[in-house]
Design brief:
heterodimer; A: 186 residues; mainly alpha; Rna Polymerase Sigma Factor, Chain: A; Arc Repressor Mutant, subunit A; 0% strand; B: 154 residues; 6 helices; elongated
Chain lengths: 186, 154
């Protein structure tokens, strides 16, 4: 299998077949991060497309000092955080009871209660905490890699994740999801 | 290590990001403390819950759309007019033009200085055109006035 670095060198020379291979190889990770963070398929698709176009434009300047996956995650993460910064969406801790739910809400209602509770609790977190948790739990990045993607020190990532998990537990206990025990008060 | 410190480290313990020495201390505390043990269990449940949230499939032909958009972007870049640089670069032709202009200006200045009436000098009265009813400036030292008395009559 051709390495990512070799493919990027080919992309830098204008080889669009190499770009196609890179996209197909990494689209799942980019999609996972973008969708879990934005919770909207159209927005996530736009972000993933923008991230790969940025990768294409960066190809002539790319130096294989870091793994390409980390580089791409960095682009996706920053695009997502910028997106939220510009749109400032209203976070929903619990699903609203409306007579005419949107398709995404409808899907959430059909899912089992635990997944819906997780989704609601994640949406209620701040953007940085949510992104750090997604990168750690779903993408399995190290603290150093998350720090690189979010422009934070590993220690700051550690604190962000600890606070994020605590907030997530609190939100889930409030929602009564997952049979969570009451929080231990210190 | 007290409960507060232990619970603050549970997240890093879960992520295998805690230094080895602290791992041992935290684990020893967890074995002995029911409250911290319950917090550790809650963290386990939280991660199982996170894992229960499914990811929808990637949209149909997302890769194809991205590659198409990439091709378009490259074509746009090729056909777009080149931007001018913010800072001028060294160009021999420009330098030659600048030197030639400076030489012409210097020559003009020297020719003006050698003339009896310099560039900034007030034109002499005899140089006034017939349609100059009055000179725009009164020559210095000349007092314009109306003469009265016997001298004027003579």
């Amino acid at each position: 299998m051709i390495t990512d670095e070799a493919l990027m060198l080919a992309v830098a020379d204008g080889d669009m077949e190499a770009f196609d291979t890179l996209v197909r190889r990494h689209q799942q990770a980019a999609w996972s991060t973008a969708f879990r963070f934005l919770r909207n398929e159209d927005d996530a698709r736009d972000i993933v497309q923008s991230a790969f176009i940025k990768l294409l434009e960066a190809a002539p300047r790319y130096r294989p000092t870091a793994a390409l996956k980390t580089f791409l995650t960095c682009i996706v993460t920053r695009l997502c955080l910028d997106w939220v910064e510009k749109k400032r969406p209203v976070a929903m801790a619990v699903l609203p009871e409306t007579a005419d739910p949107s398709p995404s809400q409808e899907r959430a209602m059909l899912d089992d209660g635990l997944a819906a509770a997780v989704r609601g609790a994640l949406s209620a977190l701040g953007a940085s905490q949510r992104m750090a948790l997604i990168l750690r739990h779903y993408e399995e990045l190290s603290y150093a890699q998350i720090g690189e993607a979010m422009d934070l020190s590993p220690k700051a990532v550690e604190r962000l994740l600890a606070r994020g998990r605590l907030a997530l537990r609190e939100a889930m206990e409030k929602a009564g999801g997952g049979g969570f025990l009451p929080l231990t008060r210190l | 290590m007290n409960c507060e410190k232990v619970q603050a480290r549970l997240s890093a313990l879960w992520d295998h990001e805690l230094p080895e020495e602290q791992v041992r201390q935290v684990r020893e505390h967890l074995d002995a403390c029911g409250a911290c043990g319950a917090a550790w269990e809650a963290l386990n449940r939280l991660h199982r819950a996170l894992g229960s949230d499914p990811l929808p499939p990637i949209p149909m032909d997302l890769a194809g759309r991205i590659v198409l958009a990439g091709r378009r972007r490259l074509q746009e870049k090729e056909t777009a007019p080149r931007r001018r640089l913010a800072f001028p670069v060294f160009r021999p032709a420009l330098v030659f033009r600048a030197v030639a202009l400076a030489a012409l200006l210097a020559l003009g200045y020297l020719m003006g200085a050698s003339s009896p009436h310099g560039a900034a000098a007030v034109p002499p009265a005899d140089a006034l055109e017939v349609f100059d009813l009055l000179p725009s400036q009164t020559p210095a030292g000349v007092i314009v006035g109306v003469m009265e008395g016997p001298e004027a009559r003579s």
